[in-house]
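Hey,

The postdoc asked me to send both predictions to you directly instead of through the lab channel. I've kept everything plain text so nothing gets mangled by the mail client. Protein one:
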Amino acid sequence: MHVTLAQLAPLPRDMRANLARAREVIAASTASDLVVLPELFLPGYELEDVEQLAVGLDGAEVAELREAARDAGTAVVVGLAERVDGGVANSAVCIDAAGEVAGVYRKTHPFGEERSAYLAGEELVTVELGGRVLGLMICFDMEFPEVARALAER
């Protein structure tokens, strides 16, 4: 499996610029099976007024990423602030190479100030991307060995 790990610094609160950069990286990664973008890449890592930065899975931003994945023929994992019932989640949206949302993981272990900005996810998630089953974690989740063990068992 060929993976592009895009270790990029998003522009704070500039969703349009970050979305354009994500599309560029995806378009340049046609030889990859999977492109992985950072935690909260679309809005930037923000903890204030996150409601203003939240997007829905059926919104234009995710639609653009789905199109980019489909056009490049590569799966994508991208971090964003997701509008959910009761607030905003720090989410990793997983899009397959056909441009379909394969799954969404909502960070189960928010760290520090994240707890006041984002709702904690309630379940661990595995998805099939690029012909492989992947267990998803976001940042601080890796500090909890039980998360990795549970995902590996799946």
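Protein two:
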Amino acid sequence: TEDANRFAAELAAMDLDLIVAQALPYALLVRDANPHMPMVIGTGAGLVCNGFGRTMQRPGGIVTGMEELPPGLTARRLGLLTIAAPGVRRVGLLATTPASCGYEIQLADAQEAA
């Protein structure tokens, strides 16, 4: 929203040592406003594919956080579903972050597991 953009820009312009962003959408706004601001991201999907780190094992850089959808998690969830409900043949995937590349991770895992 417009307010979130404005608040992120205000924070990023302050003389802060660090910003803690609750979730990926806020982290993206802060990075857009100041790509040199050190940041902790509470949780987010697709931190690597959104450019916050080089790899999960060795992210490097000035950002850290918790990846909520590591590769393989969606496949494991589908595996548990087939154990809990063996008659299930069709499953829909509804993701909340299609614009932040976390969706692609989920979709690839689901397709591979299927």
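Summary for protein two, as requested: The first strand starts at residue 19 and ends at 23.

Thanks,
C.
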